[in-house]
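Hi R.,

Here's the input for the magnesium ion complex you asked about:
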Amino acid sequence: MKIAVAGKGGSGKTTLSAGLCRSFADAGLKVLAVDADSNNCLGYALGFPQEMLNKVVPLSDLRETLKERAGSKDSGGFFLLAPEVSDLLDTHAVEHGGLRLLVMGMVTEPGGGCVCPENVVLRALTRHLVSQEEAVILDMEAGVEHLGRGTATHVDWLLIVVEPNPASIRTAQRIASLGRTMGVPKIGIVANNVKSSADEDKIRAELANLPCLGAIPHDPMLENAAAVPWEKDESFRQAVGEVEAALRK
Ligand SMILES: Nc1ncnc2c1ncn2[C@@H]1O[C@H](COP(=O)(O)OP(=O)(O)O)[C@@H](O)[C@H]1O
Ligand SMILES: [Mg+2]
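And here is the predicted structure with magnesium ion in place:
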């Protein structure tokens, strides 16, 4: 299972990503959580200790290493398209509570979005990750920028988190259409922050061209929680469990 979670900012990407990680781990799968959002929130949502997260260096900050791997250091601008990346996972992922977390960070090379050596390595790494682990959950940057850089092109599923409001629904359409262009095999939505069945119906109707894998109710326990209260929050666990079951099916 290789799943990229996308959606508008604040729609619940990190919340759903953390939930899916916990759900797959509870089912006995080896899970790798990948924080591909420059805000780096996934570790907190998963309850990793602050001291551990303070020490994490996002992969994108390892500029010299990335340049070396891409072979671009002394090559006058040329670099390898298939750099060796397998060890980066072992040296840079952190582990807590049976979950591994890799913080990607973001490359902000001026004008270099797609082809700078750092991104070549990050992309190779994503490709490697998604071919090694049993469950990889990528918590993506808001909007569609990350897809544009191709980080999510090797996933099985693109899950788009949608809230019942027009902006969120519009963003979901844009992300879905970009995902299709990039050839992501399966694209689906998860409704979040649903306060009534009318909310859910509205999302399903407006995005009827996309399969809806589940709906997560508006949940005061999630609202201001530093970490997703997985053990305590039965209703969230159940809603995420339904998404997981739909993904497996
Ligand atoms: N179903 C929900 N009910 C209540 N609050 C939610 C729900 N889903 C997410 N939240 C809250 O909304 C905020 C944004 O969620 P988050 O997962 O960080 O969004 P994103 O990663 O898309 O920016 C967080 O404070 C989170 O706790
Ligand atoms: Mg987030």
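One thing worth noting: The pocket of adenosine-5'-diphosphate (ligand 1) is lined by residues 7, 9-15, 41, 192-193, 216, 218-219, 222-223, 225 (CB under 6 Å).

Cheers,
M.
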